[in-house]
Design a protein that fits this description.
two-stranded antiparallel ribbon; alpha/beta; 11% strand; 17 helices
Amino acid sequence: MKINMKEWLKTAAAQKKPMPILGFPGIQLIDTDVRTLVADGEVQAACMKAVAERYNMLASLSLMDLSVEAEAFGAPIRFSDDEVPTVVDAVAGDEEAAEALVVPSVGEGRTGACIRGIRLAAETISDRPVLAGLIGPFSLAGRLMDMTEIMVMCYTDPDVVHIVLEKVTSFILAYGAAFKEAGANGVVMAEPAAGLLSPDLIEEFSTPYVKQIVDALDDDEFTVIYHNCGNTIPLIDSILSIGAKVLHFGDAINMEEMLAHIPKDVIVMGNISPAMVFRNGNPDTMKAEVTALLKKCAHYPNFILSSGCDIPPVTPLENIDAFFSAAREFYNE
């Protein structure tokens, strides 16, 4: 369903609806497992539909599976029935491998399944925007080169890092465009590895590449939401220069402090801990955490309650229910 996202964003925060990254826990609603979910577009669409029917969320979000794009580039992946897939080995760890790295076609690996999932979800979910998941360029380069290696090479062999970044950015652009064509109203682009960078390094190795993607994809009918769950407060000037209209942050930061740095026309989402509170908490701790965060941040007109990152697959549904219940209770006061 086409939506004028520019107009939708003007009223998004005022709707007072949370938007947690709630893709993987949906397996519990449709009696499937992670291994099946990440490989089958029809199952992904069914999962998104089931989550949308259970929770009055601001938007419907697909999976934050940061292995999909790396697998398309040839990286080996470890799969599990109840954990998110992970990259297990680098494929571009030196200059020769970086030069030889082939940019895949959109549709290779599981990217085709993810595009199909969004296409089907967009056909069946019509009461809210449908958002796809996409990895950011430095985070993808880190998976292809190995995170320790890329952090060192930012200093020792920056040209090699840029070779990989240019290739992954071209693929991410094409993949995002495919989601757009499939009917998505936007993407949540996860760039968590950039949270490891210094202000100078993020300016060189992440921001300009992310900005290319935002400039190319973001328009009146399609929004790029930038997610970074690292220590982002020292990096916020660079992050703001990307031009994304929505920023999503993790629980590594003080959200109230972050909001003081953000212009009121930029929406900010976050940041209940997906591990400590969603996965390992209970309904009482969830209510306390949500209430405390909203007391600090709800007076900011551009704040939207969310999880700090993607919520683990086997998170107790009663904790997720308590998250939404606590938000309703707070806003009805």
